[in-house]
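Researcher: We're teaching a course module on how sequence relates to structure. For the next exercise, students receive a sequence and then see the predicted structure as C-alpha cells, so they can try to spot secondary structure elements on their own. Here is the exercise chain.
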Amino acid sequence: MTTDLHTRGGRETETSCRADPQREARRKAIAVEMDAVTAQWAMSRPAPPAPAEARSPSTVTIYFVGPEGGPIKIGHAARLDFRMKDLRTMNAYPLIIHATVEGPMRLEREYHRRFAAHRLHGEWFSPHEDILAEIAHLSPTAMGVEA
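Model: And here is the predicted structure for the students to work with:
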C-alpha cells in the first residue's frame, strides 16, 4: 500500500491506495529505459576541455595578429579559431594572422617584455621593425594570412 499527498483547498491531505503491480512494473521499466538513454547520451557527448590549470603550458598558441599595416596584437589562445572570432567581432578592420608559435604562456610575457618599448596599449604594439623581424623569423612564408 502506498500513501499519496493531495492538495485540496490549500491543505495537504493523505490518501491511501493499493499499489497496482502492473503500474509499478511499468514505472520501473520506464525508469530503467530512461537511465539507459541518459547513459547512452552522456557517452556520445565529446569530453569537455580540460580546465586551464590542467592543460600543459606548451599547448597554447602565441599569435601576432593585426590589420594590414596597423598595430599588432601579441596574445595567446588555447583555441586560436575561437579567439579569432572574438577578435574579429571587436575590431573594425579585417585582421591578418601575421605569425603563430606554439609554446608556454610565459613566451607571450617574454614577447611583451622584449617589445615593451613599442607597446601602444595592453597587448597591442606598433608595427616596429623589431616586431616585423620576429614575425618574419617565425613565419617567413605565411605572413599576411587573412583571419
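Model: If you want an answer key for the exercise: The beta strands are 2-8, 11-17, 60-66, 72-77, 96-103, 119-121, 124-125, 145-146. Residues 2 and 97 are 68 Å apart (CA to CA).
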